[in-house]
User: Fold this.
Amino acid sequence: MPLVQARVGGESDVEGAFKFLFSQVGRVTSPWPDAALPRDDEGYYGPVPPNFLLRPGFVLFEGATVIKNTSMILCRNNTFYPQLCYHNPSRFLEVCGSIKNLRQDGSCEVDMPDEIDYVDQPAVLIGNSDVYYFWLFYHVTRFWLMQMVQNQNEVECFLNKKTNSFQKQTLKLLQINSNDFGYLNLGATKFRQLYLPTGIHRWSFTHPKAIEWLRGELLSTQSHPYRRVFLSRRDAARRRLLNEEEIFDRLKPYGFELVIPTTLSVAEQITVFSQAEIIVGPHGSGFSNIVFASPQAKVIEIQSPDWNLGFYRSLAWLMGQRHRQISGFSQGILDKPKGQDYVVDSRDVANLVIEELVEKER
Assistant:
């Protein structure tokens, strides 16, 4: 594969790379968080850091190339913008396999595939991910912006690859035909005109209006929360909580039921979470479904000591849900810290759960 001279784009490169199109949706939704919202002495709005802003809209690329396996969008002036390629821009520079020899001035080489398709008609990049969390908040929410576009029949929506089972189920619930998509070439795809929905999700935050849309589209009814749910990752290939059974045995007398999200359809998962008053379990994509839970629901997340992410803490905060977390102890191969199995003191989990149940009764 040939190496192409490229660079990380800056403000001075934008004019030759893409255009921001906010006017199409600006009348419908506003940037978040609003500047008028109360902040602390350091400029934080809850967990939202200073200067953080989600401004929903579209970016228009002309003559851009999308490299499938790394999600890089290389603009016609050979610049790329990490914030438009990935939800965590700094992380993109670390993990993107297309980038070679990145230098301090932002210049680099990009590994360009030999096989490149060309799409002549206007297109929208929806994309898809095999990780349920990213599928739901980074890709499905792009349909929220698509509903604001006039003449939708004139553009073709593109996914990275063929849909898997939970993606097909989600699209069916949204009444979107999973056969109505184009797919990126295995190497790369060059677009005459490519629209990218943006400003919806970044880091661990999703625009509240997108969350409202997601609940409105997928949640048929909000029932009174009564179920006590323990989420299991017993079928996971890595980051397994090894003493799940011991923990569940302590919680079962308090009315908890064992739920393995991967054994349920998307609709069934939505139903379980919409009926949950408290959700306990190890960190995993199943927690994405707290977006369908009641604002009164309580969330207790058991974290691996080597994989402590804030996705669900931020989501619970946006939902108005009480979130608690407890960290375990690593068990496994030391040279693979992010995939290590772990254990947690079952008594500590039970005590935290009892605290929340007692608090609820007050």
Remarks:
- The longest strand covers residues 57-67.
- The chain is about 25% helix and 25% strand.
